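Q: Protein A?
A:
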Amino acid sequence: MPIRLVTLDCANTLLRGSWDPVGFALWAAQEAGLCLPKRAGTTYGELLKRHYPTILEANKTADYKLVQREYVKIGRLWLAELDVNPDIAEDVVVASERLLLGPLFEPFEDTVTTLQALRERGIRLAVVSNWDASLPLVLAAHGLNEYFQDVFASLVVDAEKPDPKMIHLAMASAGAIPEETIHIGDDPVDDLGAARNAGVTGILLNRLGPRASAREADDSPLTITNLAEFLSRIP
C-alpha cells in the first residue's frame, strides 16, 4: 500500500540540538548579562519542578507568549532567591527566546532536501515531538514549517510519546490509515514505542550512535543513519 503520511520527530531527527532546561536558563541569564552564583542551577531546577504544573497548563493553550509569561514569573522568583534584581527576569526570558529560535537548534544537512523530496512525491508530512508550545516557532525559525501540514507538540496535546496520541491526530488530519503511515524518530523507546502503539511502521533514525537496543522497543525495527537513506527505502 502506498505511503500517504510520514510523521517525524524533531530534535535529533530534523534538528541538531538538545534541551536541558537548567543549562538553558543559565545560558539565557548569561546572554542577558548576569553573573550568577554557583547555586543558581540547583535553585532554578527546584523552582522549575515546583512550578512545572503551571507551565504545563500554559502549554495546553498552545500560546507560547502565555508560556513565556509563566517563565518570567519563575524567573523573578529565581533571581530574588539569588539576591538579583527580579525585574531582569523579563530580559532573561527574551534572551531565552532568541537562543531558542537561533543557535540552540539547527537543521541537519539532509533535512530540507529530504522534506522537499517527500513533498514532491505527494506524501503528507507532520511533526510529532515531545516538545512545548514553541515547536511551530522553532520550525519556522529554520524555514521548515512550510513542509508540514500538521505540527503536534506533546505539552500542547497533553500526551508524550510513546503514547500514540500525536500520531493518531496526524493520521486523523490526513485521513490516513496505519498501513499508509510511517513514523521516523531517533529514540528507540519513545519513537518506536509510539509507532507500535499507533499500529504504524516505525523507523529508527540512528544519527548519534546506539543509545539502547532497538530490539528492546520493537521486534524488527528498520534503522537508518540519515533521512536521505529513507528516500531509497520507499517506492
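Q: Protein B?
A:
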Amino acid sequence: MSIAVIKVGTFESYYRLIVDCEDKYSGELWRGEFKNRYIEEMTTKAKNPKQFAVFVKMLLAGFKREVPDEILLDLLTQNDLEQLKQRKTNSNESIGLPDDPRLKKYLILTLKGEYEKTHYPLPLSFLEEPDALTLRRTFTRLQGLIQLQNSNGFSQY
C-alpha cells in the first residue's frame, strides 16, 4: 500500500486536512477528511495535544521521513488493530471481524518521545466511486510510471 496523495487546504473560515490513500496495485482508494477541530480534539484525547498546523507538519514530516526515529506512519485495517489490542492485553478473544480489505483503514501517526509514545489514528473510508479529480490524478500518476518504465528500457510485455 502506498500513499499517493495528501492534500491540506483552507476552505472558508476553517482548515481541513484531506488524506487520500491509494493501493498502487489495485487502484483502490481510501479517504479521510478532518476539520481542524477534529484533529485538535483527537490529539487531546491521546493525551498529547497538538494544534492543527503542528499536526499537519508532523504528518508531512512522517511522509517525507524527515525524522524517522520520532515520527512513524502505519496503515492498518480494523483486523490489524484488533490483533494489536489482543497482543497488548494478552487476550485470545476475537471479535471475528470480516476480513474485507476494503473496510475502513486507519493511518496511525506515532510520535515517539524520549519516554513515551503517542498514537494518533486517522480513520480512512473506502471510496466506492471516487470523484473525477481523484481518478484523473491516479491516471496521470500511472501514465508517469509507464513512461518511467519505458524510458528505463523495461518492456510492457
